[in-house]
Structures are given as C-alpha cells and as structure tokens.
C-alpha cells in the first residue's frame, strides 16, 4: 500500500501542514554541508506526523551549501547566485528524501526547475494527489525564480496545496521582542499579528512571505527545531508550542 496508515488514535491539530526547514538546520554541529544523524532525526520526526495522519509537505533551504544573497554581495550576478542557491535546495531535498525513505516513508521531490532524472516537475494537482496518498512532498528549487527566498516559496506552496498552517522551524523556541542570546530579559510572544511582525521587523520570515500569508490568512507557527520531538509536538500535542502568527482573531487550533 502506497500510504502510511495512522497509528495514533489522537486527532492531530492540523491535517495538512507545510514544514519550512532551513538548510543550516541540516548541518547539525558541523560548519558546512549535511550532518547525517541530524537528517535521520528529522526524518523520524516527520514519520511520526505521517503516522499520526498528517499530510506533510516540506520546503527546505540551501544555506548550508550556498546562499544566493551572500554570493551576490561578493560580486556575483544576483540572478546567477540565486539559481545556484536553488540547486543547493535540490541537493538537500534529495538527502531528506533518502532519509525519509530509509525511515519507511513514501516521499516525492517536486522541483520548480525541471530536472526529470532526479525529481518530478512541480505541478500543483500532482502535489496535492501525492499528499492525499500519504506521501511526504518535498518542494525543491524555491519558486524557480531569482530574487525570491525559500520563505516566499514556503508561503506560496502552502497556499497552493491548501495547507492549514506553516511550521517555521528555527533555532529558538518562538519569536522574541529582542535577541534572547543577547538579552536575558527578552520576552517571547505567544501570539503575534502579521502587522506586528511587519511593523516591528521581527525576524520570522521575509516581508514578502509574511504579506502573502496575511493576504490569505495563513497562520505560521515558529518553534524550536533543535529540541528532539518538537516537530511532532507542535502538530500532535494539545499544549501550544512556540509562537503563533496570524490575524488578530487567530487562536491556537
């Protein structure tokens, strides 16, 4: 059977989600590239979501290999640098696919840049059908266009597949009013409006991604990826985790 049957009787908070992972998350304690044990842990946590009946899509960055913006600041043409960054996301997507399939999860990589030998082309209806069949869908190559970040790609893909929420995995346990590493008195927000994020320039997602979510009332949950089990907890547990970004009326599901 080409789908994983739910093994938990507990109803998940969301039935279809998009998980946004940074490329840097795959480095673990290393300074560059992919740390296989970290990748294996992420795969096990995503498997828990699938087994809990959650339709799961993933957008992954490429900053552990190459970052387009950084390349352009060093004198490279911005469009060329961004295309290189898109190819880096494809490397990470293939690595995550391998880890997921070794964990027993059916997975498809859909790329915004055609590369038929290694990934399917991105087609919205195909992506939705894969999700309905219980497969994890990994969106690679961003939007396929330069000058757009993977944050924007995550917002766009989430809306296209009718995801109920974006899970933004970070290195901190939510959104703070200042850097908690620099300020021990920093206050963590439990909920935030999109306008608060834009007005106060809080480091959640870039302004284009936040504006897309605001226009379509798509909530964002920012949570700590580094604590083992948090990917599962944010969707399957009753206790709210991290910071919820939405409209003034948005509440925890």
Note down, in words, how this protein is organized:
This protein is of the alpha/beta class and 253 residues long. It has a single domain (16-246), classed as Acetylglutamate kinase-like (Carbamate kinase). The protein has 8 helices and 11 strands. It has helices spanning 36-51, 68-73, 78-102, 124-132, 150-160, 194-199, 207-216, 230-236; strands at residues 16-21, 55-60, 107-111, 120-121, 136-140, 165-170, 175-176, 188-189, 191-193, 220-224, 243-246. The strands form 2 sheets. Strands 4-3-5-2-1-6-10-11-9 form a 9-stranded mixed sheet, with helices on both faces. A two-stranded antiparallel ribbon has the order 7-8. β1, α1 and β2 (55-60) form a beta-alpha-beta unit. α5 (150-160) packs parallel to α7 (207-216). The protein is globular, with a radius of gyration of 17 Å. Mean pLDDT is 91; it is low at 4-8.
CATH structural fold name: Carbamate kinase
Tally of structural domains: 1
List the total number of helices.
Answer: 8
Q: Which band does the percent of strand residues land in?
A: 15-25%
**What's the number of extended β-strand segments?**
11
Question: What's the average pLDDT?
Answer: 91
CATH class, named: Alpha Beta
CATH architecture: 3-Layer(aba) Sandwich
How does the overall form come out from the CA principal axes? Answer: globular
The largest sheet is: 9 strands, mixed
Radius of gyration: 17 Å
Helical content class: 25-40%
What class do helices, strands and sheet pairing give? Answer: alpha/beta
- Name of the CATH superfamily: Acetylglutamate kinase-like
The poorly predicted ranges are 4-8
């Amino acid at each position: 059977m080409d789908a994983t049957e739910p093994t938990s009787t507990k109803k998940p908070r969301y039935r279809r989600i998009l998980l946004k992972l940074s490329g840097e998350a795959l480095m673990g304690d290393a300074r560059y590239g992919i740390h296989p044990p970290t990748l294996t842990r992420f795969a096990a946590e995503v498997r828990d979501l699938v087994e809990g009946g959650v339709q799961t899509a993933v957008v992954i960055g490429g900053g552990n290999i190459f970052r387009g913006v950084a390349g352009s600041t060093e004198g490279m043409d911005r469009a060329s640098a961004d295309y290189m960054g898109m190819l880096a996301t494809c490397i990470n997507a293939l690595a995550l696919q391998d880890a997921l399939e070794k964990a027993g999860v059916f997975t498809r990589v859909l790329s915004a840049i055609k590369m038929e030998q290694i990934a399917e082309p991105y087609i919205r209806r195909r992506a939705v059908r894969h999700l309905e069949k219980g497969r994890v869908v990994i969106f690679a190559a961003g939007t396929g266009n330069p000058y757009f970040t993977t944050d924007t790609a995550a917002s766009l893909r989430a809306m296209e597949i009718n995801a109920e929420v974006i899970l933004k995995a970070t290195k901190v346990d939510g959104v703070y009013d200042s850097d908690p590493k620099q300020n021990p008195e920093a206050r963590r927000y439990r909920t935030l409006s999109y306008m608060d994020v834009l007005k106060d320039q809080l480091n959640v997602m870039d302004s284009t991604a936040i504006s897309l979510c605001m226009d379509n009332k798509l909530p964002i949950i920012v949570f700590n990826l580094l604590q083992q089990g948090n990917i599962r907890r944010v969707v399957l547990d009753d206790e709210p985790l991290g910071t919820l970004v939405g409209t003034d009326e948005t509440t925890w599901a």
